[in-house]
Design brief:
Strand order of the largest sheet: 1-2
Distance between the termini: 27 Å
Number of strands: 2
Structural class: mainly alpha
Strand content: 5-15%
Helix content: 40-55%
Length: 107
């Protein structure tokens, strides 16, 4: 809690991993996502309890903006358990909204 992105990058630099998972709480996870996506301070990614997302970056620290591949909030996870067809529609709708916000607010 309360860590700095630079500290995370130093720790990651010591690994040989191609894929890394970060776990945490708000506001730290939202701040890290905002930095990886190169978004401004007003950007908000809804990291509610039990939310998970995938952001692809070429390197850390990232020189180019990361790419938000997916975001699953608790609401989306509940919808996914109801039916595959319903969840696909739900995900497409909400991911489209997040993608539009990213395109507007991020480089």
């Amino acid at each position: 809690p309360g860590g700095e992105a630079g500290d995370i990058y130093k720790t990651v630099a010591k690994t040989r991993a191609n894929e890394i998972f970060f776990f945490g709480h708000e506001p730290d996870m939202g701040d890290l996502a905002r930095q990886l996506l190169h978004c401004g301070p007003d950007f908000y990614l809804p990291f509610k309890k039990a939310a998970v997302c995938r952001i692809d970056v070429a390197q850390l620290p990232s020189e180019a903006a990361g790419v938000l591949k997916w975001l699953i909030t608790p609401k989306i996870a509940r919808a996914m358990t109801r039916s595959l067809k319903a969840s696909q529609t739900f995900l497409a709708k909400y991911f489209g909204l997040y993608q539009a916000v990213l395109n507007e607010q991020c480089s």
